[in-house]
Amino acid sequence: MKYMTRKNFLLVFTFFFIGAQPAFASTADSSFPINATISTACTITSTGMDFGEVGIAGAATVQTDSTGTLSVTCTTGGAYWISLDGGLHPVAAQRNIQSGLNTLAYDLYKDAARGTVWTAATAPTAGVGTSAAQTITIYGRIAAGLPFALSNGVPFTDTVLVTIIW
């Protein structure tokens, strides 16, 4: 038996171990999309408005001012709009607080000078979220000289619906 020579060994080695390797003649690529969405979300809370004592029964009211606040928290960059309805006891566009059958007119304003009445028909107040609570003050006034009847111990009240759209 003949022994394999070194030259033959290299030839066999090359054929089986190197030449028998698979050939990579072509490749294929594919891509896939990556997406993310950040939705705007908002919350709103409120503190009430208390006018306190506005006059003596049987006499006319004195001008009485008060404030209430809204706390709005919206996602950073998210636009929002806030509107107020006419309350539970409106007569035409006039808001009224009520005690039994007795009513007393009041107005809500967008500004501290009480120059811009915030009615159900006025444009909503707009803002942009910061992810932190933003305070919006609502200014209220009962005008001087309004006649009113005794409330019989039942407070004059109203409820205004606040709507936030985002």
Compile the SSE list and pairings.
Elements: H1 6-18, E1 42-47, E2 64-74, E3 79-84, E4 95-99, E5 102-109, E6 125-128, E7 134-142, E8 162-165
Antiparallel strand pairs: 1-2, 2-7, 3-6, 3-8, 4-5, 5-7
Q: Give the full name of the CATH homologous superfamily of the domain at 58-147 and 154-165.
A: Fimbrial-type adhesion domain
Q: Structural class of the secondary elements?
A: mainly beta
Overall CATH architecture of the domain at 58-147 and 154-165 = Sandwich
CATH class of the domain at 58-147 and 154-165: Mainly Beta
Helix percent band? under 10%
Radius of gyration over all CA atoms, rounded: 38 Å
Terminal-residue CA separation: 93 Å
Strand content: 25-35%
Biggest beta sheet attributes:
5 strands, antiparallel
Please tally the helical runs, counting DSSP H or I stretches of 4 or more residues: 1
Topology order in helix (H) and strand (E) letters: HEEEEEEEE
Categorize the overall geometry. Answer: rod-shaped
Might you state the CATH topology name of the domain at 58-147 and 154-165?
A: Immunoglobulin-like
Record the strand order, biggest sheet.
Answer: 1-2-7-5-4
Rounded average pLDDT? 86
Number of strands: 8
Low-confidence stretches: none
